């Protein structure tokens, strides 16, 4: 059944390229990468509960939200059409992590109960390659944490060099 679902989804995605509305190539690549990541996560035991989750008060978006053995996972999907110098997961910088964490907090506020479940932030890296080949997909579980996105406290004299104070 899952193979049939995947086949139908890929057929519809290909058909929309030919008959659907025209949109920029990078959006088509991102949508195909998210579809591949969705099936990859399902194959690896994730139960996906939300896709492209947004909140009205935040610019950010979480690509996929799912459960992995009792842990709620917020998944960022990064896709490249062809292999490049830097892998796709390198595009998740500190600002992007902050947006994901902010949206994740708002998602957790919507859940019932007084205590939030165990959570994790994952990144799925997708390199599509040519149309005839299978995409290369890597999953990074626990790629970052709640704390890794906080601003580091600045210590103004931590890197103070007495000899070169005038160059600053």
Describe the fold and architecture:
The protein has 168 residues and is of the alpha+beta class. The chain is built from three helices and five strands. A five-stranded mixed β-sheet has the order 1-2-3-4-5, with helices on both faces. α3 links the parallel β3 and β4. α1 runs antiparallel to α2. The longest helix has 19 residues. The C terminus is likely disordered.
The major sheet is characterized as: 5 strands, mixed
The end-to-end distance, rounded to whole angstroms, is 64 Å
How would you write the strand order of the largest sheet?
Answer: 1-2-3-4-5
The average pLDDT value, as a whole number, equals 82
Instruction: List segments where confidence is low: pLDDT < 50 over at least 5 consecutive residues.
Output: 152-168
How many individual helices?
A: 3
Sequence of secondary-structure elements: HHEEEHEE
Overall outline: globular
Strand content: 25-35%
- Give the proportion of residues in helices: 25-40%
Helices and strands: which structural class? alpha+beta
Radius of gyration: 20 Å
Tell how many strands the DSSP assignment holds. 5
Compact summary:
The protein is α+β, with helices and mostly antiparallel strands and 168 residues long.
Topology (elements, then pairings):
Elements (H helix, E strand, L loop, with lengths): L1 H18 L5 H19 L3 E8 L6 E8 L2 E10 L13 H17 L8 E9 L8 E9 L24
Parallel strand pairs: 3-4
Antiparallel strand pairs: 1-2, 2-3, 4-5
Helix pairs in contact: 1-2
């Amino acid at each position: 059944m899952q193979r049939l679902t995947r086949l139908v989804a890929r057929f519809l995605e290909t058909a929309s390229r030919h008959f659907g509305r025209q949109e920029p190539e990078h959006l088509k690549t991102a949508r195909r990468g998210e579809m591949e990541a969705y099936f990859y996560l399902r194959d690896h035991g994730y139960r996906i509960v939300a896709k492209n989750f947004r909140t009205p008060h935040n610019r950010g978006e979480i690509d996929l939200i799912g459960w992995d053995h009792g842990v709620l996972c917020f998944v960022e999907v990064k896709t490249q059409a062809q292999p490049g110098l830097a892998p796709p997961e390198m595009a998740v910088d500190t600002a992007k992590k902050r947006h994901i964490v902010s949206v994740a907090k708002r998602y957790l506020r919507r859940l019932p109960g007084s205590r939030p479940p165990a959570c994790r932030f994952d990144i799925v890296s997708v390199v599509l390659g040519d149309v005839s080949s299978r995409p290369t997909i890597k999953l990074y579980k626990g790629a970052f944490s709640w704390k890794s996105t906080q601003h580091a406290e600045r210590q103004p004299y931590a890197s103070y060099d007495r000899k070169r104070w005038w160059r600053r």
